[in-house]
Amino acid sequence: MLSPRHARTLIASLIGAMLLTACGGSDDNNTNNTGASTPPLAVPAAPKDLGFVDSAPVADQAAVLPFVDFAYTNQRGDARYATQDTNAGVRVLGGFLDLWQPRSLIVDAGTTAAANGSFPAVVASDWTGLPGDATDGTIRNAAVLAANIDYVATVTAQRTAAQTLAAYLDDRRGKAYSITDGMGPLTTAWRTAAQQTTTITDIAADATTVLYNDSGNNTGVAGSANTAFGTVVDFVNNIGENGSTEPAKRFFKYARPWRWSASVQVVPALEPAKSPTPATDGGYTSGHTAEAVRDAIAMAYVVPERFQEMVARGLELGENRILAGMHSPLDVVSGRMLGQATAAASIATGNNAARKDAAYAQARSTLMAAANVTTDAAFRDFAHSGSTATDRFADYATNKANYVRRMTFGFAPIADTTKPAVVPKGAEVLLETRLPYLDAAQRRVVLKTTAVASGYPVMDDAEGWGRLNLFAAADGYGAFRGDVVVNMDASRGGFHALDTWRNDIGGDGKLTKQGTGTLRLGGQNTYTGGTQVTAGMLQAVSATAFGKGEVYLGGGTLASSADAQLVIAGAFTQLADTTLQLDIGSGGAGRLAVSGIATVAGGTLAVNFRSGFRPSVGDTIALLNCGSLRGRFTTISVPGYKTTAVYTETGLSIRIDGTA
């Protein structure tokens, strides 16, 4: 006679067998429930390629001279003679002419400065730099320029003590030193390795009457004198080659905000820093911002694990120029543009082109040693190990919101908002280390599909520097408008092995994941061309990661760790020798919801339960819901549990029978 426990076990086994038979749970895909032979499972073809890829061609170089090729024309010594025709920096910032027309330099015989640097003698230059002087320029868009100054008056009147301190420090400290706090947990290691120092640590009691200058070592010790980090310091030092803002200041002749309005309140401790010579103290463009942006890009290039945090820090320093009362929003926007162009030119065609690989390698080895880590994964984790209490750039959502806000400072578009984005020649180098598994053409498309809309004041330069959103570009494509193939080689480490795209990806294109690395998709995606995995892992970390097309698992692993059920808007197909990995949590998190037909031609279903979610014996866990389920998995793996698969015509669940 069976014991009660054995009887229950036997009954459960019989019921499970009956359920498997009734629900098509037999391991023989060619046998129906009556034992009769059924046709082999019809496996759909992979989503069809569109047959073309998106591109981001350089603007017609006969009409638009690329900054990266003509950066050498932007020289401080030629500032008095700079024009749009002769100076690449002035040309990039020329959108300001839609708002403000400066008085041109008067040169003898009425000629303009020569492109070859042989300039006529200046006969008269009576710019006073004072608003209201008709010789300085003419307002062409009164509403925008009034809003530009009113913005400064408003924020300086509301400035907090913390903002006052930050504005003062970012004004008086060396810019490279100041922005290295964007490195978060790596800040101390960077400053120590570079041997950076500062003498400006607070606001002195007499700062309202005494001008304090930073006598520390801004970028650090360069070259062979610093064997551990000298090449990195060289890279940062050189990022500003051909980056002078003086030519633009002299050409545009637009005064600082405190000269325009008495309502602008300069930080009291910065009163001694105000120039007494307005004719040589133009506001457009912000030199501090341009320097901070290009330094931040240099640091982001060699430590791409902190790419978004560093570019965010560069724009933060720009905003601090407004809070200081020293610059207007348009001054700062233009500084961002020139800083990006200068950095790209240095890396693409300047002296840093030959230095970049060695600088990247040296930064990585030195900082990994300082962090006491030996793997790329551990270094990435360490770089983001701070909390908001110790790293003010620790919160991704806050960084993103601030970056977008600081691109336009709330200005509304004043022109056509539907112009296609263009990508400047050479700009793709800015993403070389952040998206190393993409080729140069793909990185250009990333920049194009993440660019902000057209129409904002001063940002519609012909090359496209004003519309670049580097923060968004670090999160991958903004749209698939063709076939996108991502091939990641995990053996190369870093982002080759693991990366996450968090943009909301639209478009009618198709994504194909190749290679051994892992790509995570975390946006609210709407692309319609389908998703195909041939190798490695493609992981969904949002409910709509795979857009609105079908999903085809032909090789490698498809994983879901979404916080809700993962929605596949079309069909789902899984072939043999592949793995579907579901990380299941409470409330249905991580399970698969397929709107169309789910075809399972074998393969493995690997089920993991997230920390904090532990099912009980007897629970039934839904894993897959679909319009129609065809076929079944060869193996279902649920580590730590004994389970029974329960197939139906529209889905799959597992019943928890016990622990393993």
How does this structure look, described?
The structure is a single chain. This protein is of the alpha/beta class and 660 residues long. It has two domains: 67-293 and 312-394, no CATH class; 480-659, no CATH class. Helix content is 29%, strand content 16%. The chain has 18 helices and 21 strands. The strands form four sheets. Strands 5, 7, 9, 11, 13, 14, 16, 18, 20 and 21 form a ten-stranded mixed β-sheet that branches. Strand 20 and strand 21 form a beta hairpin. Helix 8 (230-238) crosses helix 14 and helix 11 crosses helix 13. The radius of gyration is 30 Å and the shape is elongated. Residues 4-37 and 105-125 have low confidence and may be disordered.
Overall domain count: 2
Low-confidence stretches: 4-37, 105-125
The chain-level mean pLDDT equals 91
Structural class given helices, strands, pairing?
alpha/beta
Give me the number of helical elements.
Answer: 18
